[in-house]
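Example record used in the benchmark description.
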Amino acid sequence: MRKKAGMLLILGLLEGALAVQPSAPSALAGDSQNLPESAETLTLFEPTELYDDRYQQVGMIAPQKVRVLQTSSIRRGHGEGYRVPRYLISTWMGNAWIVPDNALRGNEEPVDTYIELSYEETLYNDPGLLSPKGKIGKQTVKAIASWDKRYKIATAEGEGWIAPSWAAVGVKLVQTDVQLTAPTKLFRFPYEYVTGASVNPQLMQVTAVWRDWYRADSWLGPVWFRLHELDAADADHRMEAGLRFYYFDGNQTRFRASVQLGPKWRDTGETIPVRFTVLFYNEKGERIGASSGAAVRLKGGEATPVELTVDRNIQTFAYATVQVGMFNDQPVSKIQPDDPMAIADAAHPELRLGSIQVRRDGEFSILTGQYTFKLAGERRVKAELSFLNADGKTIARAPLELAFDASYPGNGSLQPFEAVVPEDVSNYASVALKVLDVR
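Model output (structure tokens):
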């Protein structure tokens, strides 16, 4: 951590004193004095400079927990530099700004999860990372607490804190088999360290999953793979989309994507026109956005660049699926008009579901089916699907949201839907629907 210089004044305030001491008028506060009370806190682990509204240093504050009144950002570095957060806090001298180098928001929270480390990490005795106790190599570790992006882990030598720059947080240990249907690349770590090796179609014994990745033991040691070469695919693996390059411009998330045909269509030699969109989900399986539609012409194994936009900030998405609307000049439809629409909520019989199918992709189960909705006009429906085992016990729940515009006729025509749940529900016995809200 960066050492502090130019110490003018140490404000060694106790947390309780900060909570009850009224803020007197001060030149430090500027126009920011009359701010609403905030429950958000920030723990400072090292002495931190205090600044006024003109970003002039006016003092120092000792390590402690402080109450955040307001958050903004400033630029650091050369040229355009980069933005770092700054916080307005309350002190006995009045309000002042800080730009801490070693601080955490909120509090330490208990967790029960696993983390796959991609690098050797320093192990510390404290969440402030001030007291190193050793090193820990690349491996899967059990996390028992988290604080922002720092984690307390259990090791053979006792507990310690790590602050990995890149790690797979939320790895789930499993024992299952996964069938590969095409040659598949092997990685040392998700997204990174291609081994240069691949495996032919076969049954793989999987020991862990993370997002849409699988881990297996091999002649190379532990390796990771996924069922599609790029970042997302449609249910029939007609095409794949690479979604690694994106940014938020203040209004939209913009993707510099690449798309290619799925394995079964790469050897045809044909140029195939495709229309598609991409749906984005968070770690809970909640849909957080849909891309603009795109039309491309794909051939063989060639990757084709395409620009996609989403009308919101979805930079933290965890999973995505491709929805193909047209393939090789033919519309793509999963509607099964003869399937019974037997799934309904007795309190809302206007919505019925049917033709449920489940496929696995790493830790996620992707649910597809069809629905009918008999109410006309603009509405938004929030519902929940519960997946039950043979004993009637709920094994997972999936959020389902449906939106209808003013032109929707309410004739009960069959429409497709997709939902995602971060659990394995492939062996479910029955499905129950509960409508949560209709507006």
